[in-house]
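User: Can you help me understand a structure? I only have the sequence.
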Amino acid sequence: MLEDLDPAETREWVEALDSVLAFEGADRAFYLLDEVTTEARRKGAPVPYSATTPYLNTIPPGKEDRLSPRELAIDHRIRSMIRWNALAMVLRANAESSELGGHIASFQSAATLYDVGFMHFFRGASESHGGDLLFIQGHSSPGIYARSFVEGRLTEEQLTRFRQEVDGGGLSSYPHPWLMPDYWQMPTVSMGLGPIMAIYQARFLKYLARRGLADTTDRTVWAFLGDGETDEPESLGAIALASREKLDNLIFVINCNLQRLDGPVRGNGKIIQELEGIFRGAGWNVIKTIWGSGWDPLIARDSSGLLLKRMEEAVDGEYQDFKSKDGAYVREKFFGKYPELAEMVAGMTDDEIWALNRGGHDPVKVYAAYSAAVRHAGQPTVILAKTIKGYGMGESGEGQNITHQQKHMASAALVKFRDRFGLPLTDEQLAELPFLRFDEDSEEMAYLRERRTALGGYLPSRRQRSTQTLAVPDLSAFGGQLGGTPGRQISTTMAFVRILNTLLRDKAIGPRVVPIVPDESRTFGMEGMFRQFGIFSQAGQLYQPEDANQLMYYREAPDGQMLQEGINEPGALASWIAAATAYSTSDIAMIPFYIFYSMFGFQRVMDLIWAAGDSRARGFLLGGTAGRTTLNGEGLQHEDGHSHVLASVVPNCVAYDPTYSYEVAVIIQDGLRRMFAEQEDVFFYLTLMNENYEHPALPEGAEAGILRGMYLLRSTDGDGAGSDGPRVQLLGSGTILREVLAGADLLAADYGVAADVWSATSFTELRRDGLAAERWNMLHPGSEPRRSYVVECLAARPPGPVIAATDYVRAFADQIRAFVPGRYRVLGTDGYGRSDYRRNLRRFFEVDRHYVALAALTSLAEDGAIPADRAADAIARYGIDPDTPDPSRA
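Assistant: Let's start by predicting it. Here is the structure, written out as tokens:
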């Protein structure tokens, strides 16, 4: 720290600042200081820098917007009843055992943060307003249910069935749109996902407005998260985008109760100061709500700055410790460190010291913060509200490390809770844990209804269907992809881009299509869309691109249709979720297509994809450069052999691995029909390859089989090639289908074995169909058994072993083993990928034509249909080394 060489001069500067503050106000003082520091920097003088401001409330008492005393009093009575009901829900659910679980402490720390919002700021959807979007912290769900009960939206029976959903009518553990589709807007309990999804939802509202598709100018996205949750990389990973995009429709409320699940967040530091520096550095408007109103007189008397010094030197571990004890302890440990501070509170009782509240529990401070946040323009806002975990729980967990796991409270603690919040319960009633409501004609109910009416309606509330049903094009609209490519070689990626261009030009649905790409547009051949449709940028294009003289130059525009998300798969997926849920959040059906390296899709952002399923998202995910042997030069971390296995575990993800352009067209047209004409809550995943080859025309009548998962591509009927001899059924998908076709040719030419070849577009859909048939048969033992689609297909062909080969791990095609009649052998690309020529990779992973033929001959020999030496002959004929290492372990 520099030495003060002229204290008198320093005092003059400080007095001058005091004069400006007193007579011209804080805004003028800020301007003058900013001018001075700017000039100092320009002239090379070092300027002190701090990412943080003093450990005080951002909004001083004289600048606070305030509620009336009547509003504060009624709000308090309503909030107290909600607090009780939230607590009673969890205690009643765990009265018999702790099997159901639940959380008490999180909502108790955040009750005021939610209550002030619901009573005065959160707007519901109405004819004149699209409604705000709420990302509720998952562990606070009991408090949200408790409010809805007080409002009359939920019944006592539903509250009694908290976390008991199997028989219907119960309440889900956390915010789950899939389980409560008319209630929860967004899933958030996988911590870290709520913040990043909120940022991209706010940005998508700007996108809709800029493109003239919806009026979203007065809507706000509120994201509630905990200070411990900010340790998740996704929580803070996209905050720079929010400021760069000037998302002043976004408000983060971080409940800084200083505790994680097991202990302090920053026991040795200050999480509020840390987060302030991070968000200020990223360009956010930061509002700190640290101290409650009881502190205002003490802070005003702190002319020496000693109180502020003590506030700043105490670390979070100490603050947690203070609130786990009592007023006498706070007097001794906090104020008692300095005699001057002890003297400052000498006239206060221990109870009065204990009542010195934190800002996040003071509705006056929270209201002031929210009011300032919604009025702020040009930046997103984060409110850092200091609270106490387990507030009101007393010795049963208030401010204690055990708080998060508390499912029970002692009788004495319930008595204190009742008294603290003025609840109308006798000692006898406390033991029964009754749910409380106000009388229908009470002042509180009238006021509550008045507030929600003024704000447009009740929240949370979710729209299940859009009022807009899109007229999707017929399959014939994709005629260019149905007729094949005779004499021309293209990839399925190229076929998809042509389909996408057709949709973008469709007058009916073109404006609803949202192409989303990471920083790989040129890899996928989509650079032509830059000029034609533009890249969305609220700032437009403030520069002339270096390729401006080219036909396909890089063009950014305020009404651009493409979302180019950079090297950011989580952000791109969050952007896709925003578009894929617009039918619900904004009553406008948007059709998002997000194309990405398949290896960096499901694997990297599987948690977000699961959240997309929970969100009932509707749209298309395109896994480009798919397959373990197709992106041949990129190696281990780029080559995808398992995205379809990951996709198979998401219940409402419909996944396909098409080989030909007509298959891509049939699947996409059906997806449009299901999701945007019939409004089915599914989303589609298609893998696309970068390998070029000639594509045949759509076989007559193949559409149904393409969609169900397999269809007969080549039949040996009537061709005379071994028609009376041994036969096999060969299944393939993606690029490996072409190896399967070549393997069938080898079998016929070299061994007289006839092979039917099936294009298996979706082993996952085949498995789901088989499981459905199997389940129906188990539950209807007296009825005629149903057959799986796999059995229907294969039983119609001459018997013989079945061989499947794909560019994915064997578990992918192995999904249908239970439904394949007879012997079933699967070839796949288990193991790590590597770089080489495609032909070498396919031979290495044992999925090329020679291994397809060998697998068929081995299976026929095992069935006794051919001599065993035929397989040995094939090993020699095709140069296969039987002692080569297992590729899954190599």
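Now, to help you interpret it: The radius of gyration is 33 Å. The mean pLDDT is 94. Let me know which part you'd like to focus on.
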